[in-house]
Amino acid sequence: MHACRKKGGKDKSIQISASNLPAGTKSVSIILDDPDAIKPAGKIWVHWNVFNVPVATSDFSLDIGTKPAGTIGKGHGGSGYKGMCPPDGKHTYRIAIYAQKEDVKAKASGFSAVKYTLERFEKDFSSSIIEKAHIEGTFR
Predict the structure, then answer these.
(1) What integer pLDDT is reported at residue 113 of this predicted model?
(2) If you write DSSP's letter for every residue of 9-70 in order, what string do you get?
(3) Rounded-to-integer distance, Cα 26 and Cα 4, Å
(4) Is the pTM of this model over 0.85?
(5) CA 50 to chain centroid
(6) How many other C-beta atoms are found inside a 10 Å radius of the C-beta of residue 89?
(7) How many domains does the chain have?
(8) Which domain holds residue 84?
């Protein structure tokens, strides 16, 4: 379901839930990337960039295939969620959700859109990040 169509999936975004967000969290951002793409593509491949999703409580949940309320950024496959699609065997995918004390000014659209990897997002917006939750999974 979460993989690309070429791999039998439906390009449906994953479910994300976070509870007990730290005090002062105004919004969250989500990054999904593939560092194993460096070998075949020459770069970390960005599958999903979502910025400044507002939160009203200490819990956050996003259902499968749901478009978040924040700013949808561009990845290497275009705007929105693009499913996992390793071209050369197994790849490890990383997903991070960032609790932010303020919205970030991400270059998320148009010709100048930045495809934010975890490292780039953390470097550019470290002053806004309160906390990060990070998981990895392998896809073949």
Answers:
(1) 94
(2) ---PPPPEEE-SPPTT--EEEEEEEEGGGHHHHSSPEEEEEEEEEE-SSS-EEE-TTPPPSS
(3) 32
(4) yes
(5) 6
(6) 10
(7) 1
(8) 5-139
